[in-house]
Specification:
about 475 residues, alpha+beta, FAD/NAD(P)-binding domain, nine-stranded antiparallel sheet, seven-stranded mixed sheet, 12 helices, about 30% helix
Length: about 475
């Protein structure tokens, strides 16, 4: 059968690229990859991401996901990290950690030693790596060209999983012109992200799906700014030791709660005045170079230069003032507790393919707000009490209430098809608990959220899953 496969993989992003990389030595499997977008960004396909009703606390969903080959790798900054062992101790299944090195190789980054270094009573050293965001996409393109056993469909959206409520049979796919096609497979793997994975499950009419928390426990990474630090001489040494930055990555400080189940990561950036001055200085230098090297009207360009001079001098004054005092902005990124109030649900509005859009309800609950506030306060007090400098707190920390707009998400959609024996959608093999031969990959399967970016763990989970396929354990 031309349209029958061993595996149909839904989505052409990071999870799929890592999975195909793990299976590349075994070309006996007939695999079909269905990507809703094209090999380049297409606005009509991107508009399939439009949400139903998303509350005011979150970004428009269309801006948080990319329907394109490579998925959200196409707007990923490259920042990634392993989940700390303190948080992993609360996960039931951690087999994927054995594949972190393969994931790091896919990302084009050097593995760190990951030594657990405690910082007095405050917390631990936190390490983030800077990957090459394009390397996984380049590897994906190479795999697409070199694997004859893999068929790719672009511009086709899986709109329904075909099943008999016991096992899956295949999928229905549609293009934007309304053409519908059926594909059959022994096994189906959803790798379409933390929004699309549950959305597709919810619109496929499974009898027993109500018994599982599909679309519930939506988690993000609340993040924001604490304020800024003016370090003392002693504080400069402290910052130089624990807040390092180079081309390979950067470090900061992780502040966990009492049982290690919830952490907040802190890192430093140059103060905004310094960054603005650096940016304007570059532009001003380019203008002067243009004046000296081009044959166009130099008088007009010189006049433009004079106009720019005043704001440049103003920003320069502010930045030099802060440069002399080495002022740093303190930023944080936090974990989030599992909450039934944060969830996805079908909308009454439909997309261009006449399929229900998704509603998102998301907020940071009072317990999480309290811990984030306490972690920020503890960090600031630690700096002052140890003589490392002064801390200027932002108004939201000084006031009594934490306003909703204080925290924003990080485009990281987690836990909506979570793995676990209790309140789990998938089992330890990533197979759904309500129908056989249907598997789910990606951050939607995280048992609980970590405060670190999910990309590295997403790739590691795919490598583990690929090895299970090779070992014939699924």
């Amino acid at each position: 059968m031309d349209n029958y496969y061993d595996f149909i993989i839904v989505g052409g992003g990071l999870s799929t690229i890592a999975l195909l990389d793990s299976l590349k030595s075994n070309k006996n499997f007939r695999i079909c990859v269905v990507e809703s977008g094209l090999e380049y960004l297409s606005i009509p396909h991107q508009e399939l991401n439009l949400e139903g009703d998303t509350n005011a606390n979150y970004f428009p969903l269309a801006s948080t996901r990319i329907r394109q080959f490579g998925g959200t790798l196409n707007h990923w900054s490259g920042v990634c990290a392993r989940i700390p062992n303190r948080e992993l101790s609360l996960w039931g299944d951690t087999g994927f950690t054995a594949y972190y090195s393969k994931a790091e190789n896919l990302m084009g980054i050097s593995s760190l030693e990951y030594k657990t270094q405690k910082i007095d009573s405050l917390g631990y050293v936190a390490e983030w790596m800077l990957a090459n965001p394009m390397k996984p996409i380049e590897i994906g393109k190479e795999l697409k060209q070199s694997l004859p056993n893999v068929t790719w469909y672009f511009g086709k959206t899986v709109t329904k999983i075909v099943h008999d409520n016991i096992s899956v049979k295949g999928v229905e796919v549609s293009d934007l012109n309304g053409n519908v096609q059926s594909l059959q497979a022994a096994k189906i793997i959803l790798a379409a992200g933390g929004i699309e994975n549950p959305r597709l499950l919810m619109q496929s009419n499974f009898d027993n799906i109500e018994e599982t928390p599909v679309g519930q426990f939506f988690c993000e990474h609340p993040h924001g700014e604490l304020g800024f630090i003016t370090p003392s001489k002693k504080g400069k040494d402290f910052i130089g030791k624990y807040f390092k930055s180079n081309a390979k990555g950067f470090s900061g400080i992780e502040v966990p709660n009492g049982d290690g189940s919830f952490s907040v990561g802190f890192f430093l950036t140059p103060h905004e005045h310094q960054m603005k001055y650096d940016k304007i200085s570059v532009q001003f230098s380019r203008l002067k170079q243009l004046i000296s090297t081009t044959g166009i009207d130099k008088t007009a360009l010189l006049q433009a230069g004079e106009i720019l001079k005043a704001p440049l001098e103003t920003v320069k004054f502010l930045s030099e003032r802060f440069r002399l005092r080495d002022v740093y902005t303190v930023k944080f990124m936090s974990a989030q507790s599992l909450s039934l109030g944060n969830k996805l649900s079908p909308s009454q509005r439909v997309d261009r393919l006449s399929k229900e859009r998704i509603n998102l309800e998301w907020s940071v609950d009072e317990l999480d707000k309290r811990f984030i506030t306490e972690a920020c306060t503890n960090f600031a007090n630690f700096i002052v009490e140890h003589g490392y400098g002064s801390v200027r707190l932002h108004d939201w920390l000084i006031g009594r209430d934490v306003e909703p707009h204080t925290f924003v998400g990080g485009f990281h959609h987690m836990c909506t098809t979570r793995k676990g024996k209790l309140n789990g959608v998938v089992n330890s093999n990533n197979e759904t608990n309500f129908v056989r031969n249907l598997f789910v990959l990606g951050s939607s399967c995280f048992e609980r959220p970590s405060y670190v970016n999910p990309s590295l763990t997403i790739a590691a989970m795919s490598y583990e899953f690929g090895q299970k396929i090779i070992d014939n354990t699924i």
